[in-house]
Amino acid sequence: MNSKTTRFAPSPTGRLHVGNIRTALHNWMLARKSGGSFILRIDDTDAARSKEEYVEAIRADLAWLGIEADREERQSERLDAYEAAFQRLREAGRIYPAYETQQELELKRKVQLGRGLPPIYDRGALNLTEEQRAAKEAEGIAPHWRFKLDHDEKIAWEDGVRGHQKFDPAQLSDPVIRRADGSWLYMLPSTVDDVDMGVTQVLRGEDHVSNTAVQIQMFTAMGAAPPAFAHEALLVGKEGKLSKRLGSLGCDAFRERGIEPEAIIALLARLGTSLPVEPIADREDLLETFDLSTFGRAPAKFDDAELERVNTAIVHAMPYDAVKHRLPAGMDEAGWHAVQPNISTIGEVGEWWRLVTGPIEQPEFSDEDRAYLAQAAEALAWGDDPWGALTTALKDSTGRKGKALFLPLRQALTGMNQGPDMGELLPLIGESEALARLERARG
Ligand code: GLU
């Protein structure tokens, strides 16, 4: 496979949400898989809405997810390049000034819709005479700028997800690319960047399909070959509807819920593809099967319960070395191994580890159980497998079995009715502490 240059191009007007994360991940995977390069491009031409704190949050979120960019670019530092492209395209007759106000445009739309016509810009500004234009300028109306689509140049591309796509340019409005105050809209800067940065593959949401149609003509007008395009289906809630909640669900919320980045990655790498979602923590394994041809056109359904299942499975398979720096002080590999099957997030480790370190709170025992626990205190012997030895001895001496044999011991030793395997826990509690707990329980 040829090496690909991809980019993820968020606007720093808010935090990343799960839909953005998915797009970032897929672009990262496309680049990694091909041995290419992945660019983080900050689309911050909208000075009023862009905030530095969001730029920082985007970087931090991507770092937490392990989606590292090979390069970072910022649109606000590239205004000269946009200006140059603008002048070139204007000289080539592909950009023209327009003077309609927002209200005039609205009115035109309404009239068209009222007549059952598609609301395509009528190119009124192109038909102005020099005098009419001069009159507008004399009135102090500064123009905004539109890119002139070539109606004779049919637009078509092979989309990496959607297959063959074609658009009739006559059915599209000439897009506004620059506001009257000189500021840029998304369309032209993005195209200039994709050319200058050598982007070979654009992968983004299907809400950009009609932008792609327009941008393909921009690439051509700039004398550049368009990159390959792929548009992935949108992410929806599990009910199948676009969900407002998903639009605000981001890394902070995941972190608070104890979701591991690897669980998010494993889910989002496969969601909406024909491959099964599996708790794969190794990115190399995910990369191996990653392929745009497995992507479906139906909306990808995001289900919290599925994310939690993947997370739990990933936590259950996590090696000690990968978590040791996040465990409570004093908790060693045996401790991790004992509690690992009982947790669904790393945050739950502490609750179980407290059973080892204490203090614990024992329930009220019946007289009968107190007598039994007294026997247990006497039978406690330390060796390789103190729990096995203790329960075998008590089974023989008391005739107890099942719950009657095990539950009072668990309650006395941990204060709980259930929890990690006692065979693993008891050696961690240690001989003297275990004896003290049994003595306390016998009363
Ligand atoms: N800033 C644009 C967005 O967030 C980027 C779209 C693109 O990938 O070209 O929608």
User: What structural class do the secondary elements suggest?
Assistant: alpha/beta
Globular, elongated, flat, extended or rod-shaped: what is the shape?
Answer: elongated
**Cα-to-Cα separation, first versus last residue:** 73 Å
Q: Main sheet, how many strands, which sense, barrel?
A: 3 strands, parallel
Strand count: 12
Q: What hetero molecules are in the model?
A: glutamic acid
Uncertain regions: pLDDT < 50 for 5+ in a row?
none
Helix content: 40-55%
Give the mean pLDDT. 96
| Assigned CATH architecture of one domain | Orthogonal Bundle
Compute the CA-based radius of gyration: 32 Å
CATH topology of one domain: Arc Repressor Mutant, subunit A
Number of helices: 19
CATH class identity of one domain: Mainly Alpha
Strand order in the sheet with the most strands = 1-2-3
Question: Could you tell me the strand content as a percent range?
Answer: 5-15%
How would you explain this protein's 3D organization?
The chain is elongated and about 110 Å long. The mean pLDDT is 96. Among the domains are: 91-155 and 162-178, Glutamyl-tRNA Synthetase, domain 3, CATH 3.90.800; 357-442, Arc Repressor Mutant, subunit A. It has 443 residues and is of the alpha/beta class. It has 19 helices and twelve strands. The termini are far apart. The structure holds glutamic acid (GLU). Residues 9-11, 43, 186, 190, 204, 208 line the site of glutamic acid.
